[in-house]
Structures
1.
Amino acid sequence: MEIIKGAGAWAPPQAGDWTEHLRTPDLSVGTYCIPAGGADGQSPHTEDEIYVVTAGRARIVTPGAAAEVGPGAVIFVPAGEEHRFTDVTEDLALLVVFGPAYGSRGA
């Protein structure tokens, strides 16, 4: 067992905006933060992904749908699907889980 301290907590974004807290071959867990008014510059990932909104408000947009999200929202994005957080009205903090681990499938 391991307690993952700080996962999902708001912190001013650093280079890359993503902080990985835990990595095993089958999954990785981290935090992704976007400040209010900020832009989400991510590209589609090669792994399935779950976001849990821990703070803030925004809109998530994919080619097939869009939705307003806030604290408690849980979002599943399948591998390869384009997605972006837009209209970030409050500092957005996301607990992110990748399966398998982020980047492990290559491009």
2.
Amino acid sequence: MSRAARSGWFIAGLALLVALCAASVSLGVRDVSFGDIVAALSGQADTVGEAAVVKRLPRTVLAILVGAALALSGAALQAITRNPLADPGILGISAGSSFFVVLGITLFQLSRPYSVMGVAIAGAAVAAVLVYLIGSAGRGGATPLKLALSGAAMSAALVSLTSAAILPRVDAAQSFQSWQVGGVGGGTWDRIATVAPVLAVGALICFVCARGMNSLALGDDLAVGLGEHVGRTRALAGVGAVVLCGAATAIAGPIGFVGLIIPHLCRLLFGPDHRWLLPFSALAGASLLVAADVVGRVVARPDEIQVGIITAIIGAPVFIWIVRRQRVREL
């Protein structure tokens, strides 16, 4: 695909995201008019409709940030592992982040946002390293199937440990359980201001490594022959992926499958060049999470379905399709 065609598709994607954002602030328990949206954006909150728009704006922005972060994290993990099944949720990285957050809050009474994000990123890093070490053991090294199985086992163990840590705290169990499902309903401007700089750092690291990710796709030997420092590129891209996943999990809970679905879709449509794949993944990931949030509010109103459930419903069939497409005997 030519540069002009990709640029055109990117502009179309931005237009779609804008349309989804308009739907996000206008649809919910109470639908609002275009006039309410314009008035709310100008700073008014006098009517019920305008107040509803003001309340929905931060959750829409949070959905954009979290969706983009998870998609970038998944794209980076797939690049550095050359694993089509790599995803923060499938590899147990989100579960590690969640477990450390729960431990930090229940055992050490952490409450400051940056402290919570710090332990979330640390948990994501520990889980990523453990899964890679386990998946690399034995003959054949870190194959996609071994990494997926290791991640599934790690995720199951960490989810059980997280539940065990939550159960004694009856007073906080309900809020923890809601957070564990994954959602953006608790978005506020203060929380966004806290997490946005951390996500920006993680995204910047991934974008800086885009050219190196292209070299990794050719294989380690050829990448070294082209002058690429394979170990450094993998480490930097891994740090970016872990920071993005950890910060996103800390603010919105563990939301699965975004990092699996979006990079695959963008790679099929726009090619494997990470200089384009990463921006497209961020844009598509943001669009998916905003759309999932809208669907969750519309189909169950006056209640709502958390975005983590919507993405799981979408992602599970896609995961099965990817496994079949890659032919399990070759994984």
3.
Amino acid sequence: MKILLVSNMYPSEEFPSFGVFVKNTEAILTDEGFIVDKAVVTKSIKKSQKIAAYLGHYANVLRKGLTGNYDAIYVHYAAHNAFPLLLLKKLKPSVKIMTNVHGSDVVPEVASQEKFQPYVKKLLQQSTMIITPSHYYKELVHEKYAVTTPIEIFPSGGVNSAVFYPNPGARQRQLEQLALDSTMRYFGYVGRMDVGKGWDHLLKGFSAFLEQNPAEKSKTRLIMVGSGKDDDAFFQMRSDLGLDDIVVHFPLMKHQDLAAIYNIIELFIFPTTRKGESLGLVGLEAMACGTPILASRIGGILDYVQDGANSWLFTAGEWEDLVKQLELYNQLTMEEKQQIAKAAYETAQNYDQRKIQSKLSAIFHKLELTK
């Protein structure tokens, strides 16, 4: 079976985490014996570069879609790829489109993304099959678009256990490489500094936690990994709250370095407020390293977090509840923390890339039956 993978997000050497799950699904399909060709875009910084990249991308999608003998067009991110695919479908009605929807595809995060919604709906209606990362997102698609197109669930490429795994023996070396104080305990965050990611709620909550528990100031640090449009606001808030020496920031990291962060921290905090949080793969990656998470009670996170059993939840957008949950976490015994960490690890194994890759293969083989 020959597949054309279409995406406006694909990792590059400069931005290795940008759309890495798209590359993961490509690797899965290749491992399962599918022939995969690509029409993808890597990240650009300058607006002029983005415009040129998208124009070239759209032309490439049309050229390959019209001339290539593909059994399916597999698209990640409906919003930014709908235009060329709808035109392709008009020019070549026999083409079969598999649309994998994520995040802002269905729940726009900013007003400028709303304009894509009519095209997203039309693309989903004209797709042969829709793939969503979670049960939550499947229901969201049904509720919003009332499509009759079959919907399958596949968790965004899953977790690469060759990268994300418990590695306690390397912790001291990792601390030294990152110039971190080995006498401190660390909480962590990984995500863009962008709207809806909750980085601001985390800073406010962590600051209040320290104020209410003064002894923690000398022994607890927060590592925040990521960059985005809100970088300036992040640094300003960190300074205003007096956290410059307490909140350690790293820019975007490669997956191997993220795995080191997950192994260094004892608790991963996932403060997203996005209704469109279609799965939350970073949470699963942390859990795969044996690190439990404290996450917002929202979105696809609810597919895998059982509050108090394999991790913990707090009310999305309410930093006061985050403080309350951090204090409850602090009261747990070491044995209780280890029990939750073990359950978190076991849960993440259900999303292991090697275990779930046959699910994606099965979805594409269903497509063959529609011929």
